[in-house]
Amino acid sequence: MKVTKFSGELVHYDRQKLINSLRKSGANQTLAEKIVSEIESEMYEGIPSKKIYKKAFQLLKNCSNVHAARYNLRTALLGLGPAGFFFEKFIAKLMQDQGFHTKVNETLQGKCISHEIDVLLFKNEEVTMIECKFHSDQDAKSDVKVPMYILSRFNDIKEKQYNLFSEKRQISKCLIVTNSRFTSDAVQFGTCSGLNLLSWDYPQKKGIRELIDLLRVYPITCLTTLTKAEKEHLLILDCITIKDLVQNTDILKAIELSHNRIKNVIKEANQLLN
């Protein structure tokens, strides 16, 4: 049996891969196998992977909003687009929970030209610049041209001093972050050039997916109890993560949710964090 990926590529159906993705959402083995069996009963040659995902998401949601929210995580990151500005803010939040001080969207004059830096980090007397590469296509990959281009920008600013985090400081490190994946050439070039890379699944077992689960820094867009329009409204109000929401639940009144819906949203949010 073959399935059609988002990109149109035909690949062999992998039952264990689907079970594993359901298990990562929090579903136990019995529930995961039950959902997969139900999906397989409706499968056909060339079925779109998007259709499999939607069916799995709905079956999970019938059992647990929290499992569905975690299963929805990669799609939730796509909801931080289309321009990626909210993705940059989300990455800053993810870094704050690791003890970094952050600045978002700073413009710095390099040796040759000025540069808009997506995120700046400060920790242990070191400043790191982050360049975010947001893809609205789930199957898209950041190829070798991305680290090559960003390396040239890093080289243009790393020898200068800037007023950053209360003092004159130099930027000594560069991290490239994407919501999708890097090609093998991009990883090879980035590693060879001394750049740090972070993607959905890289570094292995330390990618964005693992960081989100470890730190419980879930994007607001993963909630199953809110509509797409409501999530977009919250993002505009600078409510980027579930933690932001839990710390300021009154913001749900600002988007005119009913009392019962507010209770349901807060319940799902707290379950995700706990």
Secondary structure elements and pairings:
Layout: E1 2-4, E2 10-12, H1 15-24, H2 29-40, E3 47-48, H3 49-63, H4 65-71, H5 73-78, H6 85-96, E4 101-109, E5 114-123, E6 126-133, E7 141-142, H7 145-157, E8 161-164, E9 167-178, E10 181-182, H8 184-192, E11 196-198, H9 208-215, H10 228-236, H11 242-247, H12 251-254, H13 259-273
Parallel strand pairs: 1-3, 6-9, 7-10, 9-11
Antiparallel strand pairs: 1-2, 4-5, 5-6, 8-9
Helix pairs in contact: 1-2, 3-4, 4-13, 7-8
Question: Could you please describe the fold and organization of this structure?
Answer:
With 274 residues, this protein is α/β, with parallel strands linked by helices. The chain has 3 domains: 70 residues; 125 residues, Trna Endonuclease, Chain: A, domain 1, CATH 3.40.1350; 56 residues, DNA polymerase, domain 1. The chain contains 13 helices and 11 strands. A hairpin with a 5-residue loop joins strand 1 and strand 2. Helix 1 packs across helix 2, helix 3 runs antiparallel to helix 4 and helix 7 runs parallel beside helix 8. The chain is globular.
